Amino acid sequence: MKKLKMLAFAALCALLCGCSAMTAEDFYSLPQLSSTYIALQSEINALLSAGAEYASPASGQNRQAVQLEDLNGDDTKEAIVFTSVRGDAKPLKIHVFEDSGDKYVEVAVIEGEGTGIESVSYLDMDMDGSKEIAVGWRIASGMNILSVYSMKDYSEQNIFSTDYTKYSAYDLDGDTADEITVLHAGAPEGGGSAELFRIERGVVNAQSCSMSDEIRAIDRVRTTILADETPAIIVESRTDGGGLVTDILVADESGMRNLALDALNRESSTLRPLQIWSRDLDGDGVVEVPQVEALPYQAEAASIYYLTRWYHYDSAGYKTCVASTYMNVDDSWYLELPEAWCDVITVRDQTVTSGERAVILSVVGEGGETTDFLVIYTVTGDNREERASAGRRFILRHEEDRVYAAAILPAAENGLPIKVDRDTVRESFNILYSEWITGEG
User: Which among 254, 271, 288 is the end of a domain?
Assistant: First the structure.
């Protein structure tokens, strides 16, 4: 009955719209591909039949084997098809097909050497309304070549090429024209450099700046704005020993600069032993950069623990602390600490029993003595809800396989120099999601 009513309603809508010739079967028929797209598929099939294989870009935002992009600014998208042909001198091929209204016509082919296409970006570097195609060719393991091609009049002219570790296609200097920032990681001695490529009056210009000496491998590149809305590129790299270092790249008419770098000795103020990645901590659109400070050591502690401060930068290199946290990477949580806590606390952890781990926060006295005032528990296994609520404990968060709880210890009620209550602890507690410690997302 419900289906009949739906059909009757659809038929009525058709009559009101003057579509009285439609039948019930018409409402349930599958949508049909346009003849233009059928023609495109025919062109692609011809390539595949001739021995080509799809060769999708391996990384970046544009990873499809067939992509649609308006290259010449006429509001009609060209089809870009990525293939490889085994045995060819230049086996990697990027076919550009123009939409002529009733069919697609191949108008350009970019050919390259190597084992694959690492990435592709579309950008307008000279602001002429025609987009360039930036292609990362994977030449061999650990070796990439970036080539930028002009597609004006489908010329496929190679404007410039350079080796690279990572790159970013982004308007870094804020002049509305796209630029390319190429990053190089030095090996095996470490360190790195950045180059900014512009096209000005038809000429390619490059500016460069140093990156941190501690770099061993560049892991993550992201774009953001700084506190004064200046565009910036955040580059995060691994160091020996498993730590991270962040470089903050900006550019203007005077050149390219790295705000995180001490110009005298290339040491970065953002070097840290923890794998905690920069991110927009407070959701204001500005990426905060973490820096760590060792907390006072306790003899009974298993290791060194750190306070993490999160900074906004402006284009002059001045930084402002917007939050301070204790990050518990192992148990995937963090506390956003009240400022009054930061200079007087320390931390240690311990295993309470099977399925229960605890982090103990203590106040450090003037003589170095410590007073425990708060415990954060991670409770797993059977009966975790009951165990998380036992005694002085109160629940902070339920997760799929664990419960987080806290207990305020009696010493917190006896004249400590900081305020501790359940509301403060609950408001300060947050989950540390995987992308915070993997760099993904």
Answer: 271
